[in-house]
Amino acid sequence: MIKLVISDIDGTLVDRTEVLKEPAFALADWLKKRGIMFSLATGRVQGMAENYAKSLNINIPYITANGAALIKDGKAIIRHTVSLSILKNIIIESDKLGLSIIYSPNGYEKVHKLTPFIISQQKKFNRYFDVYAIDEKEFCNGFVEKLCIMDDDYTGIINNIEEIAKELPTNCKYTRYGDRAIEIVGGNSTKASGIQELAKYLGLSMNEIMAIGDDENDIEMLSEVGIGATVQNALDKVKASVDYVASKSHADGVFEAVYYFLNGGN
């Protein structure tokens, strides 16, 4: 019996506008009326996810930073971090290549330098205004829960960064998003490990959880829960790893999948 539904945010609950639409609210209300818990598992950090959680009236912990943190009522129940000293080489090389460097020391993102991508995000989504270049003191003493290296021009330079990421110690976990980005999180975290921590917190088994996602960083969690589903706009490799592929995209597809399984498969 499914007692908890977990959804990814970007590409799953929301489209490229990043705005929650009516089907997302209808889903949250439908689950609440049936006594089924609802939460989020996102690559976003706390500061980028908390408004979604509030808007959907989520009152149990939700997973951020690809599993590096578990957040409830604005506070971290769990926050895995990694030393900036370990990430120094990859940050310096990314900077030399002109890539965008976004890092989160405490659930809220900062940017290493202004780049065309960062400026475009400031204008379009009103974010990434906390610009703070990582200096030698930070490299020696600082910690982050997530580091994101972005190549918004899709030049293939991410290949170079991945080669460095492969040499990181085992207390780091990296995820590549095609030619656009690489994210590194602390504690060898994944969304699947985040769900395991959330399940333990709530006293649930993984078989009592349904998850929905659309991208590379969702595949492991979709495979480890009782029911894994995806939306029509998902990557083909995600579609190949789940129990159900919705005929609809984004929040409409999430609601379709949840309704299919939790309404008796009809």
Note down, in words, how this protein is organized:
- With 266 residues, the protein is of the alpha/beta class.
- The protein has 2 domains: 149 residues, HAD superfamily/HAD-like (Rossmann fold), CATH 3.40.50.1000; 105 residues, 2-Layer Sandwich (Hypothetical Protein, Haloacid Dehalogenase-like Hydrolase, Chain: A, domain 2), CATH 3.30.1240.
- A hairpin with a 3-residue loop joins strand 11 and strand 12.
- Helix 1 runs parallel beside helix 10.
- The chain is globular.
- 45% of the residues are buried.
Total number of helices: 10
Rg over C-alpha atoms, rounded to the nearest angstrom? 18 Å
Distance between the termini: 16 Å
The profile of the biggest β sheet is:
5 strands, parallel
| Element order: H for helix, E for strand | EHEHEEEEHEEHHEEHEEHEHEHEH
Overall 3D form: globular
CATH class of the largest domain: Alpha Beta
Strand composition percent: 15-25%
For the secondary structure, the number of strands is 15
Which structural category fits the helices and strands? alpha/beta
Q: Calculate the mean pLDDT score and round it.
A: 95
Q: How helix-rich are the residues, as a percent range?
A: 25-40%
Question: What do we call the CATH homologous superfamily of the largest domain?
Answer: HAD superfamily/HAD-like
CATH architecture of the largest domain: 3-Layer(aba) Sandwich
Number of domains: 2
CATH topology of the largest domain: Rossmann fold
Low-confidence runs of at least 5 consecutive residues: none
